[in-house]
Amino acid sequence: MKAITYSRFGNPEVLELREVSEPKVGPGEIQIRVHSTSVNPVDWKIVAGGLDPLMNVDLPAVPGWDVAGVVERVGLDTTEFAVGDQVIAYARKDWVQGGTYAELVTAPARTAAHKPAALDWAQAGALPLAGLTAYQTLTRLGTREGETVLVHAAAGGVGCLAVQIACSLGARVIGTASERNHDFLRELGAEPVTYGDGLAGRVREHAPDGVDVVVDYVGGVLEDTLAVLAEGGRHASIADGSVTERGGHYMWVRPDTADLQALAELADKGRLTVPIDQTFELEQAADAFRASMEGHIRGKIAIHVAD
């Protein structure tokens, strides 16, 4: 099968399209014929070696954790799915090696859910990691109906999903973004504010008494978060570990079938969509990485593998 691989840590130039062996299907796993995957910043950070101190990396490796596709085979004692099922997965394993930038991938059944019918393959393949990140930050903070939520980097891959999820929970949402993305945020249900110097004051114009929940998907905004947080408010970040010293949660997304199925149900109810900024072919993975690294992405970058 064809797959994108890398044999050493480095920039996108280390990525190669190669023929590799099909992955074996272990007990409790499913083999997925990949239709689409996506780029998350963690993907190119892993390829660059940034997570080597945290996770074992078995080189040569195939990058990628997002996948949407069709079940090709099921492993021993895997009753959750059947051959032919359309699925999505945050196919993270306990080590980095056999990722989703390939024609076939295996994933533990505990990482997968049935694909939402309302999303096309590109949208479905871009949902798992970013969607779970947004969902788990908001639910861990106990976001409730009637509360006001501030989403930092609201137009990005995680932020644009967090806006929609918070709205589905009945919250009022304020989202930070550049002015060119303000109409985009309004369409998703958020009240936009421009990030940068003076952010706290601009948020206070929308919420004079402060906000109940803050979710940070960019980093470098802790002082602004604390400046607008109401008494008793809660905050979390996926990008700034120092939040734990200031009463916040530092979070790392976990594979979870129930959470992923909840996202799929929101999509099928018309309450969650996945904006796609750009789509690349599998052999263009290096270009997809470069686009992600440049930033200023509205929504997600998809990688098309097969129709």
From TrEMBL:
Which InterPro entries does its entry note?
A: ADH-like_N, Chloroplast_QOR, ER, GroES-like_sf, NAD(P)-bd_dom_sf
Name-wise, this protein is NADP-dependent oxidoreductase
Q: Source organism's superkingdom?
A: Bacteria
Where in this chain does the record put each Enoyl reductase (ER) domain?
10-303
User: What GO molecular function annotation could you give as one example from this UniProt entry?
Assistant: oxidoreductase activity
What stretch or stretches form a coiled coil here? none
The record's listing under Pfam families reads: ADH_N, ADH_zinc_N_2
Q: Which SMART domains match?
A: PKS_ER (SM00829)
The record's listing under PANTHER family reads:
ZINC-TYPE ALCOHOL DEHYDROGENASE-LIKE PROTEIN C16A3.02C
